[in-house]
Amino acid sequence: MSTQTKSIPPSSLAWTMWGLAACLYFIAFYHRVAPAVITTELSLDFGLTAAALGNLSAFYFYSYVAMQIPTGLLADRYGPRILLAIGGVIAAIGTAVFAIAPNTAWADIGRLLIGGSSGMAFVCMLKLASHWMPARQFALTSGVALAVGVLGAVSAGAPLRLLVDAFGWRHVLWATAAVTLLLAAVTWLIVRDDPNARGYASYSAAHEHPALASRVFDGLKTVLRYRNVVLLFFIPGAMTGITLSFAGLWGVPFLTTHYGLTQTNAAGLCSTMMVAWAIGCLTFGAASDRMGRRKPLYIGGMSCALLSWTIFIFGPHQGYALLITLLAVTGFFAGSFIITFAFAKESVPHQFAGTVSGVTNMGVIIGPMVLQPLIGVILDEHWQGALVNGKRVFDLASYQQGFLMMLLWSVLALVLLCFTRETYCKQAI
Known about the structure:
By secondary structure, the protein is an all-alpha fold.
């Protein structure tokens, strides 16, 4: 059957292919924020300072970031199916290592394996979308992807806290490892890189240019020649840095210390921020597609997130209702970062979709990778010696100094965003 006579894949099949990759991304996001609700257990079991706790959490991001460009290049060369399956197996192994870790070194190794393997999920998910779905849905698909990820984060909030209270954090991680391994097997059996493998027409023209994708490092050099790609590498980490550094690690100890919340309630508030982030991703992705522009919505969203985060850090002690509102507003407008993926993809030729997604997602994750341990270092430097049940407790001024780093990055990102070129939602040729 010729390409011209093939029908497009049914949406149910396309979303199934994409959805299995999204399930692995769900688990990746679960691991990304899980340390936030077990900070007490980790600190006591491994004897961690704030800097060491931030570094343990960030080991996930170190390997995640390191895998982004290789994953993009390999996805363009070999396809996402094999990467997703291998990544799932390695993530399961890393989770098991973390579950049995007798000390910090083994825990770091576990987080490193989890992060590196999880780093394959998002890029492969975008690559599958570019083959199985029309280009006009790319920004929306990116938003749905982040929404799925945030559901994973929400599951690592209050639900994880309740499970840890009932069974212990190590047993919960063992169960997570088993589920991840099962999902990797299902992915290998069902997912296909391109609709052509199932007898349907592909939405991507990339398979018609294998020679271009095969020169993997040439692809990397090519995408980095585009100004938008370079700028969009540094910009989104500001918004993800705020969301994942607070909701993903430091929010629970901050809220329990300075607002007197229980760990479960604090985890619930952080989950509220993550849910608002997911809604923001869906809203900004779809609105940008309808508007036919990327830059104005991105600037507006980042500006509003910056304002609400400033009020949260330096405003007076907020009541519970205002606290929820500020975190939800910050999370929602921080979701504007989702525009980054469509913005960057449209800035380079289509055959480099995997490569540019890897570069862009690397920039996205650099935010929490840098900020989580940096905030820990700042907290330790300003520690006044207070201990509660053997765990360090930090005053409000210390947290303000640490959270200020997120604010400064956001200001710089907003300036850089002004120098990007609008794509008008049209793919570069």
